[in-house]
Amino acid sequence: MERTPHTATGQLPPEVSTLNVVRRDAYADSVALMRTARQLSSLPGVETASLVMATAPNLRLLADARLLTADGESARPADLLIALRGDADALERAVAAFDGLLEQPAKDAAAGAESGAPAPRALTETDPATGLALVSTPGPYAAAEALKALRCGQHAFVFSDNVPLDQEIRLKQEAHRLGLLAMGPDCGTALVDGVPLGFANALRPGRIGLIGASGTGLQQVSCLLDAAGEGVRQMIGTGGRDLSAEIGGRTTLDAFELLDADPGCALILLVSKPPDPRVAARVLARAARARKPVV
User: How large is the average pLDDT for residues 11-29?
Assistant: First the structure.
């Protein structure tokens, strides 16, 4: 752990400090970090709290917000970076509270769980009926974990970003070979058999199946449908690169097969970022053969 209070200058009042704490080779997923950052920001004397993995883009964002100190600049992509601004004493208290706040949901879940068999520690130990695995790890390791899930017969929802392109190609080819879905990488939202995954909204159940390479697009469209009185049966995120020339729309096409065969899905709706023209033609050709309407 490294930490050095830095008295901010420029537009900040002299009594306000910035503190960076680097946790070497520590990882937490972005949902847990955002929740904990919000809790730290609400502590007395803490003006701002940002908790990120120390990737180059995240360091640039912290620098732009004047939340990066020399200690933070030394952090590596595999490190967890705590960036705080506020009263110096309050920042020390916030750092002391960090671990407890980050771990509290897991402790609450354990306290409320019924006694029984211990939770599995590996995919190979899961109940054979388990049909889906959610993967949220540092990007370089995500494809390997998702491949394990696929080989255990589970669809993979890959929340992780920064997954190398060649690994994404291999992952989606393997999912296709096994008749499974690889949602993602960088898949932020999905709704599978009524179960929300990632950043998902409470939606009324219905007859529409959504497929999208844009998480924010899927959320917007699904909320508009809900507001119009329509319901969503399935919402499959593909990851933002799926419709690129390199990936070839592999997950989009596989999702089409599943929704087209689903008797409870009456209509398929595609949401997309600008696709590669050849991939778009391939997807539209598949849509033309669908047994149900496609929008």
Answer: 81
Parallel, antiparallel, or unpaired for β 195-198 and 189-192?
Answer: antiparallel
What gap in Å lies between CA 8 and CA 17, rounded to an integer? 6
Say which amino acid occupies 215: G
| Entry pTM | 0.71
CATH for 2-110, options being 2.60.220, 3.30.1360, 3.40.1350, 3.30.450: 3.30.1360
Residue with tokens 């704490």: 21
- pLDDT tens string 158-167: 999 889 999 9
Q: Residue 184 is encoded by which pair of tokens?
A: 């993602």
Looking at residue 119, its pLDDT comes to 60
Is the separation of the CB atoms in 217 and 174 below 8 Å?
no
For residue 108, count CB atoms less than 10 angstroms from its CB and return exposed for 0-12, middle for 13-18, buried for 19 or more.
Answer: exposed
Per the model's pLDDT, the better-predicted residue between 26 and 29 turns out to be 26
For the chain, the structural domain boundaries read 2-110, 130-288
Query: Which sign, positive or negative, has the C-alpha torsion 160, 161, 164, 165?
Result: positive
What CATH number is given for 130-288 in this structure? 3.40.50.261
The residues, any chain, with a CB within 8 Å of residue 215's CB and separated by 6 or more, are 187, 188, 189, 198, 199, 237, 240
Q: Which two tokens stand for residue 209?
A: 């199946």
Going by their DSSP bridges, the two strands 80-86 and 205-212 should be labelled as unpaired
pLDDT 10s digits, 180-223: 999 999 998 999 988 899 888 889 999 999 999 888 899 999 99
